[in-house]
Amino acid sequence: MGKRKKIAERVTSLMDKPEMIRNIGIVAHIDHGKTTLSDNLLAGSGMISMELAGKQLFMDFDELEQARGITIDAANVSMVHEYQGKEYLINMIDTPGHVDFGGDVTRAMRAVDGAVVVVDAVEGAMPQTETVLRQALKENVHPVLFVNKVDRLLNELKVDKQEMQLRLGKLIDNINKLIRGMNEEKYKAGWRVDASAGSVAFGSALYNWAISVPQMKSTGIGFGEVYDYCQVGDMKTLAQKCPLYLAVNDMVIRFLPSPLKAQKERVGVIWHGDKTSKLYKSMEGCDPHGPIAFMVTDISVDPHAGEVATGRLFSGTLERGMELFISGVAKSNRVQQTGIFMGADRVEVEKIPAGNIAAVTGLRDAYVGSTVSSNKEATPFEDIKHVSEPVVTVA
Ligand code: GDP
Question: Which of 62, 141, 201, 344 could in theory staple to 212 by disulfide, Cβ–Cβ 3.0 to 4.6 A?
Fold first, then answer.
């Protein structure tokens, strides 16, 4: 059996356990290292080799993207991560980091419950960092922080140990100030990032290592050790002792909510229909036996299967042959295939239960932002709005 097929089997075995799922997006200002970080996570899941992480730019599969060197199309991948002896399913969405593609970031935010905000240790928070944070808070998506390019502090800025920690502390303070400024209520309710609790990780995606305060005991690598290894240029040992994917995935599992928890908080924010209805209760409870409620966040074209609608399933179980209604369209569409994404590849799976990111073919009338339901009269989700500049509705 192929490696990917094996991974796909492990993924499907976790799809119907919503408490073991994390739907996440990686968001960043351009060039802060989102793609390199995504590669590390893919390598950790066995999807690409560790040596290639940071070099292969796996998520940027479009030729256009390769040519331009920036990520344009949001791509998805599902992977399995073991934390404290239990397997978890992480559905990761890659999001564009360029200012022109704000609309795509917005769509991705609708599909996820948590965001890993990547910030360059030297540059700190930049305008796009602010935009993606604001969008996350608006969509009720929890943030954790990854401070990337820590190697630059030493190799380029030549800071000493104390200065390194001071700068990192200041960067975290700035992020928390932004969160507080955007939403004081959420800030007070624990949405701030906290290095000592573990909702911040520090590392270097290019050199495949990362640390977080709670992990310092088990790895034996703290800020002092990081400083010493960087000083002598021994990144290999750091990558072995504290691989990036472990620090980041552990942080994701610990601090970002499962769909079971998240949908309770989020459904009321993104759907304004009848709160006593069966549909609302089913979405709130992430019920795989309820009516279908699927929000389309991306449409791509597969040379063989045609249009693929990717999105978040909030309620019900998607299966081939289902007749479903697209918001604003009178006639129904029949589901042809249901699948998950593993980088550029779509892997067909028989059923997709509530709480997952699904790739569906056959929904010919769907567009980005469509609500897909089993009930023709179902209230659609709130329009996806991009909030950085003048608020526009993404059609
Ligand atoms: P994105 O635009 O956020 O996806 O950023 P990329 O992942 O494409 O990274 C932008 C540039 O920063 C590339 O040249 C990377 O090799 C480099 N880079 C990424 N992570 C690190 C890091 O930890 N340290 C250093 N020094 N460079 C990095």
Answer: 201
